[in-house]
Amino acid sequence: MKRLLLAATLAFAASSVSATVLNFDDLAGGTEQVPFGYGGFDWQAGSTNLGAIGEGFHPGSGYDNGTVSPGNTIFNYYGSSGAKINWLGTDTFTFNGAYLTAAWDSTQEVSFAGFNDGVQIFTSSSYTINNQTPLWISLDWAGIDSIQIFNNGSHWALDDFTFNGTTDVPETSSLMLLGLGLLGLGLARRRKAA
Fold first, then answer.
1. Confidence band (pLDDT; 50, 70, 90) for 9?
2. β partners of residue 49
3. What sign does the CA torsion over 142, 139, 165, 176 have?
4. Is the separation of the CB atoms in 95 and 158 below 8 Å?
5. Residue pair 99/145 in contact by the 8 Å Cβ criterion
6. Phi, psi (deg, nearest 5) at residue 128
7. CA geometry: angle at 114 spanning 111 and 120, to 5°?
8. pTM
9. Where are the beta strands (DSSP E) in the chain?
10. Is 73 left (phi over 0), alpha (psi -120 to 50) or beta?
């Protein structure tokens, strides 16, 4: 019974915390805007719109070199800074990270800010990205409902946007209740057998 309890608790916990990776490969990949609601987000929330671009659209560019999962990346239209991405869920999400590559500049600086209900709660340091190799930027910011990306150069390419929606992650108390319930069932069964 102990094995059943442990297996059930571990299976529930593992299935509840798996991250979602948005690779944008199912989008058209010209230079179209990322549609509202894609992956549960508003990609046009800030002053900078975000579009999907195919890896071969500009061969040899950072768009091409920055495509981690074959197909598409997303980019900041007009090279503008301050791209904002809003979560459309009723609660918050955890932004795990993403790959970024400079599209044209040999190098440029990017930084991030995380918000909850309009209040900035996280600020990242600056990261130097180049147009040859994607850089994985890991932030693991929990409890946010929007993220903003700043840059000091031109266009960038972003791939494998990785996050956990809060609704997918149970609270510790929920796991404890599940474990206690299974433990109680095991003890009741053990008493009956004795």
1. very low
2. none
3. negative
4. no
5. no
6. -95, 120
7. 110
8. 0.77
9. 20-22, 41-42, 50-54, 72-76, 83-87, 93-102, 107-116, 119-123, 127-130, 135-144, 146-151, 156-165
10. beta
Q: Would you state the structure tokens that stand for residue 164, as one six-digit string?
A: 């956990």
* Structure token pair of residue 179: 């474990």
- Alpha helices (runs of H) in the chain, residue ranges in sequence order: 2-16, 62-65, 172-193
Phi and psi (nearest 5°) for 184?
-60, -45
- pLDDT one-digit tens code per residue, 75-129: 999 999 999 999 999 999 999 999 999 999 999 999 999 999 999 999 999 999 9
Closest CA to 98 of 153, 50, 36: 50
Tokens 């091409």 locate to: 64
